[in-house]
Amino acid sequence: MKRAIIIHCWSGCPEYCWYQSAKKELEARGFLVQVPAMPDRDAPNLATWLPALREAVGTPDEDLYLIGHSAGCITILRYLESLKPGQKIGGAVLVAGFTHDLGYTELSNFYTTPLPLEKIKAKAKHFTVILSDNDPFVPVSEGEVFEERLGAEVLMMHNRGHFSGPVDKEDSCTELPEVVQAVFHASQK
């Protein structure tokens, strides 16, 4: 059975912004979907978030699709880095994702070593990155990095901020159908 796991943003929760809408739409398409509550959501730490993602995943396979939002994206990238040789997932959808330390002290623990993007690229059949041209936290140049180093399909959306809500002082982004479309498209390949 095809599975999807949505990893929320820093200070997010399973009920936040577009996660439940994406969950419902993916379930309607036959996916088993989880949106786990990550530990210490207001103080994300790789030492706790990575084991939580591993627990949610169980055994990775090519029927698994990981969806991340902001800090959830770096968690997914570090998870993919940690997979054993021969392990691979169906795809990853990274919303407002970034590949390097953007200067937030709270997230620096995710960047104690550089991301080995070439190694990570081999751990998923497909990558889609969804960015906004006015994201106050993630520069648009991240799209080029994802495209060049991961071979990701990059969707640059106009005026969508951080695809978030009150946590980031934005109007709530309660639907993001591009996430569902990206997962469904990757699952058909």
Sum up the structure in keywords.
single chain, 189 residues, alpha/beta, Rossmann fold, six-stranded parallel sheet, 6 helices, globular
Question: What separation lies between the terminal Cα atoms?
Answer: 15 Å
So what's the CATH class?
A: Alpha Beta
Overall pLDDT, averaged?
Answer: 96
**Main sheet specs:** 6 strands, parallel
The name CATH uses for the topology is Rossmann fold
Q: Which architecture would the CATH scheme give at its second level?
A: 3-Layer(aba) Sandwich
Strand order of the largest sheet: 2-1-3-4-5-6
Q: What is the alpha-carbon Rg in Å?
A: 15 Å
CATH superfamily: Alpha/Beta hydrolase fold, catalytic domain
Secondary-structure element order, N to C: EHEHEHEHEHEH
By oligomeric state, this entry counts as single chain
* Total helical segments: 6
Strand content: 15-25%
Produce a short descriptive summary:
The chain is of the alpha/beta class.
Describe the structure.
With 189 residues, this protein is an alpha/beta fold. The protein has a single domain, classed as 3-Layer(aba) Sandwich (Rossmann fold). 32% of the residues lie in helices and 16% in strands. It has 6 helices and 6 strands. It has helices spanning 19-28, 46-57, 71-82, 117-121, 141-150, 177-187; strands at 3-7, 32-34, 64-69, 91-95, 127-132, 153-157. A 6-stranded parallel β-sheet has the order 2-1-3-4-5-6, with helices on both faces. Helix 5 (141-150) links the parallel strand 5 and strand 6. The mean pLDDT is 96.
